[in-house]
Amino acid sequence: MPAQPTYKNTDIEALRALAIVLVIMAHVARLLPSDHWYMNVVRQAGFGFGVDIFFCVSGFIITQSLVNLMPAGPDLRRFLAIARPFLIRRFWRLMPSALFWILALLLAAAVLDGTGTLLSFRDSLQPALTAALQVADFTFSSCRDAGKCGEFGIYWSLSLENQFYLVLPLLAVCAGRRLLPFVFLAAFAAQFFIERQLTMPTPFLWALRTDAICLGAFLALVSHTRLYRELEPTMLRLPLLPLALLVYLVALMARISVPQPAIAYAMGVTALLCGMLTWIASYDRCYLTSNRFVRTLAVYVGSRSYAIYLTHMLAMSLAAWLAQHGPLSGLAQALGPGVAVTAFLGLTLLFSELNYRMIETPLRAYGKRRTARMMPEEGLRGQEA
Predict the structure, then answer these.
(1) CA torsion 40→43→47→48, rounded to 10°?
(2) What percent of the chain clears pLDDT 90, i.e. is strictly above it?
(3) Where are the domains of the chain?
């Protein structure tokens, strides 16, 4: 049976594109001098909440892809029937790309050995191992405080997502489709009042936050209800209103994502606002992508957002090395940090496009073929996360 074509909700793709742009905005400061004007921006506004948007969108899409396969009530006999094809598809969708770029970072560390923004090869071995084993979220606080995460630090989020994927099929058969929304809502509520801002020392729970993922999963489970349909924000059909709302929510989340936020429980509020954006996008009404150019750009960047996330730290290290130690480093330093930033963006686009075309897309298709006969046809439909 041929695999069903993947359908693109362009508003969801727009949120993915927004999320990766915010991540780039958060990390690009590493290439800039301390007196650069952009450093004042990142002191007043944090952009790391792009990861929370990723979490919420992923929780929504992945849970939605399983809704039709979930039993109405607890039924442990369904576990293998659901978990096996689901986890196989997840593995081929995510892990080959992740492992490839972990090895690429190790190779770069061996060659450059502590220059650029890379750790030495020896110091890279432990964070590379935790990243490959998908436990980087449990070690993130200690390695960050010791300054030993290096370019592998970004793998805490992938580790957390993959752990969620491991647990999701078990929760589905233990709670069933009827009770599972309450499980995720309770998990979200339990974390809301925990203060987990990214300070020093690093809070252990900062890298274990699942509130945005749980909220996305909750939205997926209630998206088939009558109440969900009745609550559709149809007022967003008004011209410019979606853009104004998006700008306001992004600005608000940026302002409360600093280490000392103006409001209490900023992480919980951020997850809630990410949930609001995902809720708007979940209706697939092009509220955020009514413009054709925006829609095309969102699909392109959104489809490559995972590849961009994996590759941008290596691109940053190579750009820093070229600016500091490369053959034209003198000219690059004379022209200013814009040269390094331009090289970083160019390398990121190049690496991510190669990953998307040569690793991610063919191996995702392979995973679909491997599981085509394991799941009912309805379980193969939907947008890939």
Answers:
(1) 140
(2) 81
(3) 10-370
